[in-house]
């Protein structure tokens, strides 16, 4: 009888622990989405201006574009210590990646192909 109570008590503790972990994971995911949305809203105007002013053989026209879309904030882990951030916009098939840290825009086909 004592063994059964111990097993039931351990099972209840495990279920409660898993529930608490799930709750905290959900709360953190909500906070990360909120932070990402705030950063994207903060960077958007800056990215559009930098992309339209970037020198390229293919012009990037966000304001006059027929088909524009916002891919958003991306990050690539270059190595163990470096993470590179990029904010990507697409206007009429032309991709523009804006680096919010360096405040530079690059126009091309892929973020990974440019420095």
Describe the structure.
The chain has 115 residues and is α+β, with helices and mostly antiparallel strands. Helix content is 45%, strand content 26%. Strands 1-2-3-4 form a four-stranded antiparallel beta sheet, with helices on one face. A hairpin with a 5-residue loop joins strand 1 and strand 2. It is elongated, with a radius of gyration of 23 Å. The protein starts with a helix and ends in a 7-residue tail after the last strand. The relative contact order is 0.13.
Please outline the major beta sheet.
4 strands, antiparallel
SSE series = HEEEE
State the helix count.
1
What is the assembly state of the chains in this entry? Answer: single chain
Tell me the number of strands. 4
- In terms of DSSP E residues, the strand content is 25-35%
Topology:
Blueprint: H1 2-53, E1 68-77, E2 83-91, E3 94-99, E4 104-108
Antiparallel strand pairs: 1-2, 2-3, 3-4
Question: Would you kindly provide a brief summary of this structure?
Answer:
The chain has 115 residues and is of the alpha+beta class.
List keywords for this structure.
four-stranded antiparallel β-sheet; 115 residues; 4 strands; 1 helix
């Amino acid at each position: 009888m004592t063994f059964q109570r111990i097993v039931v008590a351990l099972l209840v503790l495990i279920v409660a622990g898993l529930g608490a972990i799930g709750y905290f994971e959900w709360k953190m995911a909500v906070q990360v989405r909120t932070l990402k949305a705030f950063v994207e809203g903060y960077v958007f105007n800056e990215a559009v201006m930098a992309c339209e002013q970037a020198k390229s053989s293919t012009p990037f026209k966000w304001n006059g574009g027929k088909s524009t879309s916002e891919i958003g904030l991306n990050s690539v882990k270059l190595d163990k210590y470096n993470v590179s951030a990029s904010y990507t916009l697409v206007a009429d098939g032309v991709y523009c990646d804006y680096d919010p840290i360096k405040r530079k825009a690059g126009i091309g086909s892929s973020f990974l192909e440019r420095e």
